[in-house]
Amino acid sequence: xxxxxxxxxxxxxxxLVTGSLLFTxxxxxxxxxxxxxxxEGEVDDQEITIEKNRKIEMPPANRxxxxxxxxxxxxxxxxxxxxxxxxxxxxxxxxxSPSALPIPAAQAEQQELFNNYVxxxxxxxxxFYGEAFGSGQVMENIAVDGSFKHLSSSMGPVDGKNSATGxxxxxxxxxxxxxxxxxxxxxxxxxEAFYFYGYRRPQEIDRESIRQVLKTSQFRLGIENxxxxxxxxxxxxxxxxxxxxxxxxTELDWGTNLKGSVGISDNFVALxxxxxxxxxxxxxxxxxxxxxxxxxxxxxxxxxxxxxFGVNAVNESDKRLDINRTRxxxxxxxxxxxxxNIHFFAGVDGDINRNTLRSxxxxxxxxxxxxxxxxxxxxxxxxxxxxxxLGGGISxxxxxSYARYRNFYGFNNTWPDTSQFFVVYDGNRSHVxxxxxxxxxxxxxxxxxTLRADFYDYSxxxxxxxxxxxxxxxxxSNSFIVNKKLFITADLYHYQGIKGxxxxxxxxxxxxxxxxxxxxxxxxxxxxVSAFVSLNNITGRNxxxxxxxxxxxxxxxxxxSYSF
Length: 564
Prior knowledge:
The chain has helices at 8-23, 104-110, 357-363, and strands at 117-123, 127-139, 142-153, 165-177, 181-195, 211-225, 232-244, 250-263, 268-282, 286-301, 305-318, 323-339, 342-353, 376-391, 394-413, 421-443, 447-459, 472-481, 486-496, 499-502, 507-510, 514-524, 529-536, 544-546, 549-550, 555-563. It is mainly beta. The strands form three sheets. It has a 22-stranded antiparallel beta barrel. Strand 7 (232-244) and strand 8 (250-263) form a beta hairpin. It is globular.
């Protein structure tokens, strides 16, 4: 990577850290994994079985759409979006739970003079909530902030304390900014405690035997360009995340992400992205799992057309599965603007989605010990659709995708203990058709509404079903500013077509459709004090997102917030 001499001072760190990534070659060996004999939590040569567990609470949804690009080409088109999240398998993602759209105008008005706050609340199921945020300017160019959150329920949906939950999250952030670049540092610690309450009833249970505690600590450093006039735009972030649980499992994950762009002309931009993940997982035998990705692309834009093309080269290695291979995937995206803000797009891409112990636990936290890990290869994904603004505050997005996967996975209960889960991989070719549509409406920054639906059709080779993956998901999110003091948000979530199997009885279950309605009200009592109340799962149904794990019925949380 060549950098102008004038940029070397603050790019020295980039050169040192990324040198090994860009110039290290890894021999690709197409070897068949030598897997251990079949046992609980593992599978034979035909498919890999992995256990995957997740919270019953639905986290925020992942958007499938790209933002509408600017019609006029400018230097802003070279600016990068600094997102450094692992690529995950989002097809039929069980983590769908978008929150209501924000109401920035009102929130900015209330928080204009106050950057810090403390919140406290309580609710049914013995729930207690506390949160605090503070920030400050240490020096002219140095800013720091920190936050802490506690949320716990002493009782759950079944058997009282045997389904209790608790979580604590601490985050510290710091930044140093000059006219040319910005340095950032992030430190975080999470602790989640819960129980495997999906056991058979009636049954006497030792609570300590079903208790799980997940501890995650992480540290990240980053540097990025902030000078819009600089020809070379860049961002480099690196960090270490350590995970441990109550079953002697640990995972140390070091990830480094580089993004850069160079403006060749007013309409032509060269883009570069590279990722390096070095991971060691200890859960029984030690397993070293690494992934390296290099993705050079070019982007051409004018007022009617945007074309992005390139290649995505990925190398993955796994000591336990005896894998060391490299794959290359095409990258092509076309975006046509025939009139106004109406866009039609189409493209093809591919990738290897990294599956780690931490990513699996984020999806399904009721994961059994000694889970087998394997990445999912998206061989190709052909997509097309349209997006735009129709006027009158109405916008829309629609997309159709047809993709081929290898090691496409689903979740299922283990045997003989059905209270824990494993993940089953389809080791052959799987095809997934996804149809997604979304409509949004905004009225004068007073009312916002978004309606979205996703439809999935799975064509699998070796798996009997796409276990615990929905065929239909939907959401309807709304936010409404009644006046300067009263704000209301309301959400509706829907899941349908989820199937699970009890391998002890060999019985297949189709879970009841999920309808989850939520309402939140914020009322400002003064300039610094506000009250809030949240009503969740208003229909009161103890639905199951995962087999044998019912959700809490109607639950509420109320409290006060103080800003300063």
